[in-house]
Design brief:
Chain lengths: 383, 635
């Protein structure tokens, strides 16, 4: 396609809140967000090359995933949020159905049953729910009078709890947490009453012992105990945390240099290219590297919140806010666990950890965010 | 705020949303702050601690043991070197089932219980991924067995190490000694730094005496390892400095000849270079194979050695203490003359015995009926007349005998460069008071004057004494090593020359020549025709020699109570170059068994070295390394 064709085809799409400004800007893209994401991806690729032990295969595949992610984002960004709102229930229903299917025909590894084997590739239905739950809740609550009444809160809690519990029993605590967080943020942003919040807090405290004794598996308990005292099992469960905090601390202010981190390059650091990749970045680029990364993340979150605030409908606001805050949960949980202030749960560092699923899911979310940012004003709704 | 309307109020809702969003954004910023605080704490406040931890993770220091110095004889013949040996060790982490692996390896190599016990002990003390040795010194067959079965022996490692080797084996076992594993007592005494990475140390002989020089300096390697303990690269390396090589005065050919001449007899031969004191041969027979001790001798083999009545582990030349018998006569003859107890023309009548005044006890001559009348000092030495020496010994007194005996080296360590040399006994009044708590009797003097009684000497001391006789009082300290590395290794002898008038020397040395040459000489028949000149003195020691143990077989006691045969000699007479002392235990007839051994050694020496030697062998004939170094030196 020549440049001319491209411009012409874009013009036909035409309009946005920004009016009919210059040609291809008409494509539904939020440029500040896109720029930030591209910078983040570049940084991620850079760190991954080192963290994977200079394995170009990982880098290539990650690049492919990022490409797919970008395409997904662009495509999703072109949908009208109203369309998404309509189809939310279908996506949600399908997601929950697949989760139930996993229980019966799923395949797994290391004692967790999370995958559906489709023959040509393995697929993790819980990822769908990361998007479907905020979508469903935003859709449901966006049509209700806010703040939500008890009836609506009750339904919303059910909508969150069903998939969260289904994922939790796989068990995949990290994803369950993210699903729960995504749903909770919708509820909270929708103006959930203070009474409910206090109720949730007390319920949580009350339920903690029940969780401990009946729901958590032994390895999960070990992870929590290890957090409190990593030295108690130096070569076992504590190993990961000791090695990752060592790597982070050894980085100092400016780091040991790219590909010079001894903790990761000499395999002391486990999972160095996936969940623990922040330790590699910390060791090789130091505190300044961490600051840079957090700055990019911070700006993305800020941009997401701005988009949500300026969104055209309550559904869009709630969706955008929830997606943005869930993105933050990824960051906080991952960086917190690797640095030893949270128990180890399998949450990747967005756009930096190796892994296609999380990248595509995240980019799907950002696509929705962009769709929201370019939404046409709806009739009868004002800011 | 609880609403009255079921209608949506977009303005109200959007305000509510903005409030909630702002609040969460604030919380988000706060939590990002928590993350920043945490990373700041790890990376800035506690950076040093973690940097150290990370380095400890990856950097390990490995000791590089130095190669032990080699030992050569005077002609560059290797007496001790290092051979690569193969050790089988096991890395427990690399195998899934250690029990099974041990069983599999055991099937191939048949381990002893002691090996397994040592392995289990070391297994408990090792670091993760450290290999633990199981079998040392694999034979070629064993190596092949392991190699063929390698695929099913994951965790087994075969590595090369340097193992001490003694090419000449038993011939030099008592001189060179052997190395062995460092034991716990040595571990406490040694400087741990110097022995990092070394498992062996000199246990006896030169290996022990020159341990410091032979050891060398340990090298270090800082290596970076990955999490599985595998070495990724060497960060820093200090090469080990090999130990210094030793070159001996000793000629391994003479040593071999001495041992062959002793044959099946138990005995010792010491040959000294008279000018330098350099030890040309130092043989003790029977001997043992020192190679057995290097990697640990089996209990059975060790028991066979310690249980043998011939005592092969006992170094007779250095530690055997025998009555020197008649071999002391030249020394005591000089003593009597120089002290003025008798004159050169002094003669006696020998009835075959000697009596002290007022004592009925007869001190008998070895020859029944005596040597007759007008026995001079010359006659007394040539014929080995005991009565004459009883007389002049008594006339000299023990103080004079002790004084002169000591100056010829009796009763003191010679200072040879070997450990645990016996001192012998040159008796004196003080010695008897101290050792026996008794006063000195005149009869004691009579016994000592023919080298019996309380007097004891090692073959080395006898050789030193004859060397001093040959050199007319010039003293030198016996020394095995001529060069350490390429430095001369001569001790500074602080012993004074024995000043005795020349005419006394002439008389006594002429008599010693007569022992070999004179028709009545006691060694004339034993030595026979020689194409050079030799002086000597026979001796017979009546006392049962070395200490006896209950282990000895009673049926053999008869043989063990026979006299020891002794012979000391030097040659040539006018310009002495070699001094030899020989003892043949229970050889009975002094001249017939010991003298031929001495002659064989002297024959060989004069044959190999027709010209007189420099004081020390040239360093150039040593190891190739010396040759290379010397060509690099300017001038």
């Amino acid at each position: 396609m020549s440049q001319g064709d491209f411009e012409r085809s874009l013009k036909e799409h035409g309009s946005s809140v920004y009016g009919e400004r210059k040609s291809w800007l008409a494509l539904r893209i939020d440029f500040p967000l896109l720029t930030l994401l591209l910078v983040l991806m570049a940084l991620g690729i850079f760190v991954l090359y080192s963290a994977s032990g200079q394995n170009l295969n990982y880098v290539k595949r990650q690049g492919v995933f990022m490409g797919i992610g970008l395409v997904v984002m662009f495509v999703v960004a072109q949908f009208e949020p109203r369309f998404m709102q309509r189809w939310a229930i279908v996506l949600y229903g399908a997601g929950v159905a697949l989760l139930i299917a996993v229980i019966f025909v799923g395949v797994g590894a290391k004692g967790a049953q999370r995958w559906l084997d489709l023959g040509f590739f393995r697929f993790q239905p819980s990822e769908i729910l990361k998007v479907a739950v905020p979508l469903m809740l935003s859709s449901y609550l966006g049509q209700r009078v806010l703040p939500p009444r008890f009836k609506h809160v009750f339904v919303a809690v059910l909508l969150i709890a069903i998939p969260a519990i289904l994922v939790g029993i796989q068990p995949d605590l990290g994803t369950a947490l993210l699903i729960f967080a995504a749903g909770f943020f919708v509820l909270f942003l929708a103006g959930l009453g203070k009474g409910y919040l206090l109720g949730v807090l007390f319920f949580g405290l009350g339920a903690a012992p029940l969780f401990w004794f009946y729901l958590l598996r032994d390895y999960q308990k070990t992870r929590i105990l290890t957090l409190l005292d990593p030295q108690s099992d130096k070569l076992g469960a504590g190993w990961n945390i000791i090695q990752s905090t060592t790597a982070i601390g050894a980085g100092g202010s400016s780091g040991k240099g790219w590909m010079q981190g001894t903790q990761s390059q000499l395999d002391f650091l486990p999972e160095s290219h996936t969940d623990f990749i922040i330790a590699v970045l910390s060791e090789e680029f130091g505190f300044s590297g961490v600051l840079c990364l957090l700055l990019i993340y911070g700006l993305i979150i800020l941009r997401g919140m701005v988009i949500s605030i300026y969104a055209q409908s309550m559904f869009s606001r709630l969706l955008a806010g929830s997606i943005t805050l869930t993105f933050f949960v990824y960051i906080f949980v991952n960086m917190g666990m690797v640095s030893g202030i949270l128990p180890v749960v399998g949450v990747p560092l967005p756009m930096v950890s190796y892994g296609g699923t999380s990248i595509v899911t995240l980019m799907l979310g950002f696509g929705m965010l962009m769709a929201v940012s370019r939404e046409k004003k709806r009739m009868g709704e004002q800011l | 705020m609880a609403d009255f309307s079921t209608l949506k109020n977009p303005q109200w809702e959007s305000r509510l949303y903005v409030a909630r969003a702002s609040f969460t954004l604030l919380v988000v910023l706060l939590m990002l702050g928590v993350l920043l605080w945490r990373y700041h704490d790890l990376q800035i406040n506690r950076h040093q601690d973690f940097a150290t931890l990370a380095d400890n993770n990856r950097i390990h220091v490995r000791a590089l043991p130095p190669a032990r110095g080699l030992i050569y004889d005077r002609n560059g013949v290797l007496l001790a070197d290092n051979r690569p040996g193969f050790t089988l060790s096991i890395v427990a982490e690399r195998t899934k089932n250690l029990e099974q692996l041990l069983a599999d390896v055991g099937e191939l190599l048949a381990f002893k219980d002691t090996e397994l016990a040592r392995f289990e002990k070391q297994l408990k003390r090792r670091r993760p991924y450290e290999s633990v040795p199981l079998r040392f010194n694999l034979s070629e067959t064993e190596q092949a067995l392991v190699a063929v079965n390698e695929h099913r022996l994951a965790g087994v490692e075969v590595s090369a190490q340097l193992i001490r080797n003694y090419p000449l084996g038993a011939e030099l076992a008592h001189v060179v000694g052997y190395t062995g594993r460092i034991n716990e007592r040595e571990l406490k005494r040694f400087d741990a730094k110097r022995y990092k990475g070394s498992h062996m140390t000199g246990k006896t002989g030169l290996e022990k005496y020159y341990e410091d020089q032979l050891l060398g300096e340990v090298g270090y390697e800082h290596v970076e390892t990955n999490a599985r303990g595998r070495v990724m690269r060497v960060l820093e390396r200090t090469d080990p400095v090999p130990g210094a090589d030793l070159q001996l005065f000793l000629d391994s050919r003479l040593q071999k000849i001495a041992i062959q001449a002793l044959g099946a007899e138990r005995g010792a031969v010491v040959a000294l270079d008279t000018a330098s004191g350099g030890v040309l041969a130092l043989a003790s027979s029977p001997s043992f194979d020192p190679n057995l001790f290097v990697t640990g001798i089996s209990t059975k083999a060790y028991k066979a050695l310690t249980g043998s009545p011939a005592q092969p582990l006992f170094d007779r030349a250095l530690r055997g203490q025998y009555p020197p018998g008649s071999t002391v006569k030249p020394v005591f003859g000089l003593a009597a003359l120089d002290a003025g107890a008798v004159t050169m023309g002094y003669r006696i009548y020998d009835p075959g015995y000697y009596q002290l005044e007022g004592d009925k006890h007869k001190y008998r001559d070895w020859k029944r009926g005596g040597h007759g009348s007008k026995i001079s000092l010359y006659d007394a030495i040539v014929q080995s007349c005991d009565t004459f020496f009883y007389d002049i010994g008594f006339r000299s007194g023990i103080d004079v005998l002790h004084d002169y005996g000591s100056r010829f080296g009796y009763g003191t360590q010679t200072g040879i460069d070997l450990p645990a040399e016996a001192r012998g006994i040159m008796p004196s009044r003080d010695w008897k008071q101290g050792a026996r708590g008794r006063v000195w009797y005149p009869g004691d003097t009579v016994n000592v004057s023919i080298g019996q009684g309380f007097m004891l000497a090692t073959p080395l001391q006898m050789a030193v004494a004859v060397s001093r006789l040959a050199m007319r009082g010039e003293v030198s300290q016996p020394q095995l090593v001529s060069h350490v590395g390429n430095e001369l290794a001569r001790p500074v002898s602080e012993l004074a020359k024995i000043e005795i008038p020349a005419r006394y020397w002439d008389l006594v040395l002429d008599a010693m020549a007569g022992v070999v040459r004179d028709v009545r000489g006691t060694a004339r028949r034993a030595i026979g025709n020689i194409d050079y000149t030799m002086a000597g003195k026979t001796g017979t020691a009546q006392v049962v020699g070395i200490k006896q143990d209950e282990r000895y077989d009673a049926s053999k006691l008869a043989k063990l109570q026979l006299d020891h045969a002794l012979f000391i000699a030097y040659a040539p007479i006018d310009k002495p170059r070699i001094a030899v002392a020989v003892i043949v235990e229970n050889g009975e007839h002094g001249s017939s068994t010991a003298a031929p051994v001495a002659r064989a050694v002297i024959d060989a020496y004069l044959h190999y070295y027709p010209e007189s030697l420099e004081t020390a062998p040239a360093a150039g004939v040593l190891a190739p390394s010396f040759a290379v170094e010397s060509t690099n030196e300017p001038g």
